Amino acid sequence: MRGVVLHAPGDVRVEERDQPVIVEPTDAVIRLSATCVCGSDLWPYRGIERVKKPVPMGHEYVGIVEQVGSEVRTIRPGQFVVGSFFAADTPCEICRSGYQTSCVQRQPGAATGGQAEYTRVPLADGTLVATPDLPDDDLIPSLLAASDVLGTGWFGAVAAEVGPGKTVAVVGDGAVGLLGVLAARQLGAARIIAMSRHESRQKLALEFGATDIVTERGDEGVAQVKELTGGLGAHSVIEAVGTQESMMQAIGSTRPGGHVGFVGVSHGVEVPGGKLFYSHVHLHGGPAPVRRFLPELIELIYAGTINPGKVFDLTLPLDQAAEGYRAMDERRAIKALLRP
Amino acid sequence: MRGVVLHAPGDVRVEERDQPVIVEPTDAVIRLSATCVCGSDLWPYRGIERVKKPVPMGHEYVGIVEQVGSEVRTIRPGQFVVGSFFAADTPCEICRSGYQTSCVQRQPGAATGGQAEYTRVPLADGTLVATPDLPDDDLIPSLLAASDVLGTGWFGAVAAEVGPGKTVAVVGDGAVGLLGVLAARQLGAARIIAMSRHESRQKLALEFGATDIVTERGDEGVAQVKELTGGLGAHSVIEAVGTQESMMQAIGSTRPGGHVGFVGVSHGVEVPGGKLFYSHVHLHGGPAPVRRFLPELIELIYAGTINPGKVFDLTLPLDQAAEGYRAMDERRAIKALLRP
Hints:
Chain A is α/β, with parallel strands linked by helices. Chain A is 30% helix and 26% strand. In chain A, strand 12 (191-195), helix 7 (199-208) and strand 13 form a beta-alpha-beta unit.
């Protein structure tokens, strides 16, 4: 089968790779209907995370179950499934508390790489959620978004305790930030301030429910959010970047007693304790337990209530994955969908 | 009047100072019945915080109202009152959300120093809470504890989302940590792990409701807490020190999805973003909004349900304040009460 391998920063290749097979009796193998490039794939692509050896890429995936191991109970061949980027067993105490991405058995969800024709998924019963039927083709981008970026933006909003009547600010206008806007809207926010400097992303933010746009960053961005909120800051702030600047922008934009939900994968961030202490904010985040939200998100997508697939502004055949990475790296595309 | 002034690290003097007077119409002047030395007073005493000029000390105080300004409405001369270390107006939006220590009008609660015979309290209606009557002398240590260390330990427990059935760990065996144990007990914790290496403090922790003692610190302390909690960590951890080691010990001792309540005043702490991200903990803390809890705490003290005054294991006349500082610095005393 064909699959994407990152050989070195900037060097993405689509290669002939071994067909995945069942290894553990709890595995499933699925034939991918769609996959995509993640903002977090750009960290090694840009050389910010080291690439020590060729790595099969991709952790966002939807597809049709091809085969299951002997101990898989609920997932069946022929089902259309939405995956999670980390595999989890779900009966453990941590999973039951809603933190499947810290499952005691946590491991990569697309064990052999998700940007491929097929992938092997460990702990299939816990990791995969089947859709009610084989979805129409136009639902597939949204279901694919649910497998990571939508679930991540949603967790950011939940971690930031977004709720009815609240003012929310979103730091970051990538797919996760934009879907954080969508989540905030669904969760009843009264006002949603999207922090974005890019016109096409501002447009999508407004479409997803943003009520205000702030183009400034850093201290100036914080000052703008304060000005829009009577000098106090937002109740809830979603941090969807993962840099020192974005984290400080998020903390600074939050009112005392407010909540920061941070879902940008942290790179080199150091939160100064004194600043955090006197900020009086709540800080919560980490790898989104997408699995917690998948049943609800699939329902909202099937009902046509949300259309998160709009974040895919570039669709390419799998063989042109390298162009997908390039377009996202150069910010020509928000997110690239790949069709195996 | 007599009052405590810190001239330089280690140099505490009790001096003749000006009698405080009403400055703003919202002020009160109170005659102090008792005051004490705070763990946070030791930071400048030890030279860890710079002492640029002589500073009047003290921010924990109870006493009798002597005089009020023309705009004070609820506090009256003759009342016995418990103070808060920050003054707050209470009608502002931040106060109403329970974060009086981030009040938009925040200022020191004992404006002229609380380790003295008299002090001036700004925004008296918001800052002071009157007791039902003039309390018996044996209640005074507990009421004094409510003005800071009890309220701070309590906030640590609330910020750590302590609740019925939960396992709680407490990092720090100073007065705040010990009263964090007491708070956890009152809030229904099933199991309370006190982290302490000092026998007298362990004894008080057990008296306040601790069920387990861990003497190890750092990574070994974390390993011990994990071992006591099925490898997962505690649901709720109270951080009551404020150093890098204690903060990392607190984060490491918390299970994914669990809560850290940090109330030790941060000194040189830098929380590594990546570690925080993958820890999946909730982090919340800061200067305790003691005012939020005072009415309830005063009730519990009057009812005899709690006796937080036990943290005072040394009582001295105000004139011997220097010995109180020394005893706490050398860890001969948990907390020194001063009688003006």
